[in-house]
Amino acid sequence: MTTRQGLADGALDVSMEAGVGVEEGKQFLRFSRLNRVLHALMIVSFISLALTGMTLKFSYTGWAAVLSRLFGGYETAGYVHRVAAVVMIGVFVAHLVDLVRRKNEEFGTWKALLTGPHTMLPTKKDLRDFLDSIKWFLGFGPRPHYGRWTYWEKFDYFAVFWGITVIGSTGMTLWFPEILTLVLPGWILNVATIIHSDEALLATGFIFTVHFFNTHLRPEKFPMDTVIFTGRMSLEEFRLDKPAEYEELVRRGTLAKHLVDPYPPVVIKGARAFGWLALAIGFSMVIWILYAMLFAYR
Amino acid sequence: MDHSPEALPRRVVVLVAACTLALAPTATVRSQENAECMLCHEDVTLVGERNGKAFSVYVNASEFATSVHADLECVACHLDLAGAELPHESPLPRAQCGTCHADEDTEHHASLHGQAIQRGDPLAPYCADCHGTHAVRRAHDRRSPVYPLNVAATCGRCHREGSPVQRQRRIHQTNILENYSESIHGEGLLKRGLVVSATCASCHTAHSILPHTDSRSSIARQNIAATCTQCHAEIEAVHEKVIQGELWEREEHVLPACVDCHQPHKLRRVFYTQGASDAQCLHCHERSDIVAASDRRSLTVSIEALSHSSHAKTTCSQCHTGVNPSHRRPCDTLTERVDCASCHAEAGQQYRESIHGKLLSRQDPNAPSCKECHGTHEVLPKSEPSSPSFPTNIPALCARCHREGNSAAVRYLGDERDVVEHYVESIHGKGLLKSGLTVTATCTDCHTAHRVLRTTEPTSSVNRENIPSTCGHCHHGIREQFAKSIHATASPETGHRPPVCSDCHSAHTITRADQDGFKLDIMQKCGRCHEKIAETYFDTYHGKVSQLGYTKTAKCYDCHGAHDILPVTNPLSHLHRDNVVQTCQKCHPGANRQFAGYLTHATHHDPEKYPWLFYTFWGMTALLVVTFVAGGLHTLLWIPRALRLRRARKEELEAERRKAAMPVSEAEEGSGTAEEKI
């Protein structure tokens, strides 16, 4: 650790002196390879679940029938839905396993991991950032110095925990109704249906609007932020977007440790294509859902 | 004869006031002796009155004395006057001939004449109408109306051309009396005085007169040979065997129906060979240029078509009745159109009752008569594939008028449009026309062939009330199931009329019940009456999948049954407590008692019935609203600020480019200030 830190310090000095422009080519690594893969799998499974699930929820609309046909019928759509559910649960479990691994390798104790500077748990700074953000939105203050994980990113993170629990448990109920009704009355299935589909509507709606805006559509990122696919962002962008983390790294002199070479353009192109596809499907679904809720609701 | 045919059956004697007045002041007398009766009835001026008409009740004592009943007392026939007070009550019932003539009475009762009496037909003949009243004589008495030489005249009173019976009742033969008197039997009897010659009663019997369609009738086809051979004994031994190159006796000593060659009432030597009259007709009608004087329509008869038709063995004059073979043009006496009903009596009767027949009787130009469907000389049985009434040809036959745009379809103003096109695409149409199944229902199977009636007619085969039995002709098993179902009877609570086959299956667009289109459509059909329950069904998984256009999940009939729908309280219902788990298990093999508690018609809009669903739904809705409002507001507030940030950074980038050569530290400072500015 110490030797690596020393090397990094040297690199940082160069960077600090030469400025961002001098450190041509080097980029800040924000997401690990595992997290990028998990997020990509999450996108694929989430969109699959949403598309197949919404055909049922909004079965009274024309688009749902067409979509269901595209999936090869409700049986195939149901199969896709369950496979995607297994993938998503796999992603969730993989993340938990990774947490355990990082606890063991990097932090030693759960306390260290959960109270460290990069914790996902809400902190006082998050509350302050939130209040400062509102002030900034209203023109009463400067943009807050956001850290590695902003409060809205933490909200999204825990939304997944909530969603997996609620949608996953009700989904299992509906997947294995014969087993469940051995212990619970049959009307539980009706309740589970409502919770499952409405919570899914919440997740879909939130991801495809608020999350999309927060990460991709806000003007400084528009039209797309590829950091979640490549894991890399330019140092300049990093400094502007996450000033607190940047300053922290500069202060501790460990910035260089997080600098890597950028991906070749073809990878970035691929990442963009994938991102665009996900965005396009997401926005389409928002339109379909709005149409169904506003014009065809029953 | 003394009385007109109209007056005869009305003979109910009512004593007139004159008689009553003459006797009234004296004490009432016991009526026992004929002499007592004659006290009044020998008066030639004595009249009775009925329906406002006076008629003589005079009894000719001298004629009575010569009658076969001369030795009988009046009360022997007028039984009800035995011991009655005189003057007797009116109206006087009929004389009871049956008291002595029991067999004849029974026969007469069962005959056409007796049936007419029972119907209350005012033209129906009683005993007295043929035999007379007080002057009844034996049949071999020349003065008797039933003496052979008089029979034709006696029967002819009613059965002559122009009589009320001939005009107002359905008598299929015309010119009966005329034809008979010209026939060899009539000629023998009336011109040559041969009393053994056949009279009406010889063939029709005296009392047991029945239509030829009745198998017991002496003139029923199978009995004709027996009837004729009463006189023409062993005719097969002396009859010319080969006529027109054909052996007329198909089986040895088994006679064919004599009337096939020898028309009833018209037996003439000239008809002895069948071809004779036809040859006479064909002499002109074989020519291809023969046309009617009135409308120039062709009158050519194709002997080729005729010889292959059902009527190959029927002579021209059997249908074209009224020809006179003694004329140079036998047809110049023709006055009437061909009446197929003279042989096809039942079909004719049905046709007359049908909408087609009624239109014809109104002389509607669009009305189809027999020949429109069956053709004329080329008529073929419906078993013949080239016949227009062969099953596979029927749709096209009816379509001539009932296809959209054609005469009948133009007049029809109901909802069943494009019936022909729809039928062809229906399961029946496909079965008939694509699969060539001649047992498939055609137009006539539902609408009948001859008794076609509007649906509004209560006796129509396609009237709502009759549809289950009409469909049940073929779908018997289904009808049995349906008859036991809740839909077979009207709801006692709501009084809603129950559905019939066509409400779910339609009339002309019937599809296979195992095809997706029908399976999906049927839910709408159930929903037409079961509106609420159908709506809530579509809120559940089953309904949603169905709505997407898939048929593998449970639809109405998968749980409730199709034709055997019963209330859940009925132990035979698929949804009865004892059966419901099994019903679920049809699709969900692992289903258990609690599984069956799934609410298949649940709705989250009913807090009374489904509080759990209602509050879950609104809880979730609240969660969604709160989350979206919070997230949305956060984002909306963010946008203007973020736009300004973007603009500031752009400007900063410009500035940086300008300062490209400047030291890094200064550029960095600049950017810092840009951030601060926002």
Structure notes:
The complex is a heterodimer of chains A (298) and B (678). Chain A has 298 residues and is an all-alpha fold. Chain A has a single domain, classed as Fumarate Reductase Cytochrome B subunit. Chain B folds into 5 domains: 230 residues, no CATH class; 70 residues, no CATH class; 139 residues, no CATH class; 92 residues, no CATH class; 65 residues, no CATH class. Chain B starts with 16 loop residues before the first helix and ends with a helix. By secondary structure, chain B is an all-alpha fold. Chain B has a two-stranded antiparallel sheet with strand order 1-4. A two-stranded antiparallel sheet of chain B has the order 2-3. A two-stranded antiparallel ribbon of chain B has the order 5-6.
Features:
heterodimer; A: 298 residues; mainly alpha; Fumarate Reductase Cytochrome B subunit; three-stranded antiparallel β-sheet; 3% strand; B: 678 residues; 5 domains; two-stranded antiparallel ribbon; two-stranded antiparallel sheet; 35 helices; 6 strands; elongated; disordered N terminus; disordered C terminus
Task: Quickly describe the structure.
The complex is a heterodimer of chains A (298) and B (678). By secondary structure, chain A is mostly helical. Chain A has 13 helices and 3 strands.
Alpha-carbon distance between the two ends of chain A: 62 Å
- Element-level helix/strand string of chain A: HEHHHHHHHHHEHHEH
Instruction: Look at the structure and name the CATH superfamily of chain A.
Output: Transmembrane di-heme cytochromes, Chain C
Give the overall form of chain A. Answer: globular
SS strand fraction of chain A: under 5%
| CATH class category of chain A | Mainly Alpha
How many domains make up the coordinates of chain B?
5
Helical stretch tally of chain A: 13
Low-confidence runs of chain A (pLDDT<50, min 5 residues)?
A: 1-22
Strand content range of chain B: under 5%
Continuous helix count of chain B? 35
What multimeric state do the chains show? heterodimer
